[in-house]
From TrEMBL:
Protein name: Uncharacterized protein
UniProt keyword Transmembrane, yes or no: yes
Domain of life: Bacteria
SUPFAM superfamilies referenced in this protein's UniProt entry, alphabetically: P-loop containing nucleoside triphosphate hydrolases
Keywords tagged on the record: Membrane, Transmembrane, Transmembrane helix
Parts of the chain that traverse the membrane: 29-54, 66-86
Length: 504
């Protein structure tokens, strides 16, 4: 071989021959390199396909930082960060966890005809139209949805979260007590949990963040959420709150949910026929006739002006109107000024019937509820009020709390289905001649709904005294979000025949 190589070098064609040999060797190396690259790509493609369903693949290849960096030759990590399909694939195992707090959305409970208006705009639009725009990839930037308790803010947010085309995380504001980024990390594992990676996705608008109940948390938690919004000012963030005095993120657009109009009240009440229990006394045409008769009496024109306005105010709230629907369907005459109390009485009677006449422990339950609200606790502990919460769940007052990464055999926990129901039990913690809580919590927006229910559940003389305190507070703080509604409800009560007194 050495002699042949030497002979080739001595010929006049040696340069051409060497060039040919070099070209052949180069092509061989390029071919081998191409095969290796294709094999590497095929290998990671198979891993990506297997990733959502194989925990071993997740742990060994994707959640192992060094394996991902070295075995991925650097480009795999970049593709996971910037390729939309791969980003969705990376978060696929966590979709249920990211949306766990949104709960099981019920299309039957959603009312698309509710009106929504951007602050400063001249006209409103149906909530369904605005929802279509948000789901159609037009949720850009930061949006705040503001509305009274019970108007459907949470349902709207849950409906947006159902958009399977975009990467979403749903957070109750109470989960953000250590920070929004930390709350998101608690739902993830592996590289998806990496703070730098998350920050990139949020800032780029790839991971859409939904936060519900800003009014239900402390000022410190709310400040952390606002700080998050200001830090990720280019991200997509949808938040919901009741009216309150606060400083929203400067770039956020505010949309206000409107109370139901007269035609919408009738349409909503009739639409509840799809969610009535199977054993309801009035169904079908009988339920429709019952609703028509009730609305004709409740909204009759000869009712005294302030009383009619108060009745209209209550019926314009979908949450209250849902309670009315269930009472009408079961042959119970609704007392609009004590709807939540009526609901409670039905549950209390059922509890006594199924527990050998034992009384529902209202005072202890109310005190525990007050502690939960003060501490921003989202749910009851698994070992408390088990019997009581089970009966309340049957009456749709509480729901199963969605744990993040909970153990499969963990005992169930419960949370209030709606803050109006929670507020009803908080009222009991505010009642009493020497109770200082009404005066101590005037400036705490977490208890706004409690004051509005106190307007109907407090003895009339005590309610008038609290009205004076709210007016004084509003004059000093320039915050009329509670006092104005309280006065409106109390005016209607003064002109109506109601029974004064607290809870029983």
């Amino acid at each position: 071989m050495e002699r042949q190589e030497q002979n080739l070098r001595e010929t006049t064609h040696a340069p051409a021959i060497e060039k040919t040999i070099d070209g052949v060797e180069r092509r061989q190396w390029l071919f081998l390199g191409g095969v290796m690259v294709l094999a590497h790509l095929l290998f990671w493609r198979l891993l990506i396909l297997a990733y959502p369903r194989w925990p071993l693949v997740q742990t060994l290849f994707f959640w192992n930082r060094w394996m991902r960096r070295i075995g991925g030759f650097g480009y795999v990590g970049l593709l996971l960060a910037w390729a939309p399909f791969l980003r969705r694939r990376l978060f696929a195992p966590f979709r249920d966890s990211l949306l766990a707090d949104a709960g099981a959305f019920s299309e039957a409970g959603y009312f698309a005809e509710s009106q929504i208006k951007q602050r400063g705009a001249n006209s409103a639009e149906p909530m369904g139209d605005r929802l279509g725009r948000f789901k159609g990839r037009q949720l850009k930037g930061q949006v705040i949805l503001e509305g009274e308790s019970g108007l459907g803010k949470s349902l709207f947010l849950q409906r947006v979260a159902q958009d399977g085309q975009r990467l979403m995380v749903f957070l109750p504001a109470a989960r953000c007590n250590q920070g929004v980024l930390e709350a998101i990390q608690a739902k993830l594992a592996g590289p998806a949990k990496d703070p730098g990676y998350l920050q990139t996705l949020i800032f780029a608008g790839t991971l859409n963040v939904i936060i519900d109940g800003l009014n239900e948390v402390s000022a410190e938690t709310r400040a952390r959420i606002v700080q998050f919004a200001e830090s990720f000012f280019k991200g997509n963030l949808l938040m919901a709150t009741q009216p309150m005095i606060w400083q929203p993120p400067p770039l956020a657009r505010v949309y206000e949910l409107q109370p139901l109009g007269k035609a919408q009240i009738e349409a909503f009440l009739l639409s509840r026929s799809t969610v009535l229990s199977e054993d309801a006394a009035y169904q079908g045409n009988a339920y429709r006739q019952r609703c028509d008769q009730y609305l004709a009496e409740a909204l009759q024109e000869d009712t005294f002006g302030e009383a009619r306005a108060a009745i209209r105010h209550i019926l314009s709230n979908p949450m209250d109107l849902t309670v009315v629907a269930h009472m009408l369907a079961n042959g119970v005459e609704p007392d609009l000024y004590r709807l939540q109390e009526q609901h409670y009485q039905l549950m209390k009677d059922d509890y006594a019937r199924t527990h050998a006449g034992q009384a529902f422990p209202l005072q202890a339950f109310a005190e525990r509820t007050y502690t939960m609200r003060r501490n921003d606790e989202p749910a009851f502990a698994a070992d408390e009020f088990g019997n009581e919460l089970a009966v309340m769940a049957e009456h749709r007052m509480v729901i199963r709390y969605q744990e993040v990464l909970a153990e499969p055999d963990a005992a169930p926990r419960y949370a209030f289905r709606h803050d109006k129901i929670m507020d009803f039990f908080l009222v009991e913690a505010f009642l009493g001649d020497d109770n200082q809580r009404p005066a101590e919590n005037l400036d705490d927006p977490r208890f706004r709904g409690v004051y509005l229910q106190l307007a109907t559940l407090m003895p009339l003389d005590a309610a008038k005294k609290l009205e004076r305190e709210l007016i004084d507070y509003a004059a000093d703080s320039k915050d009329h979000s509670v006092s104005d509604s309280f006065i409106q409800i109390l005016r209607g009560r003064r002109t109506s025949v109601v029974t004064d007194g607290g809870l029983e």
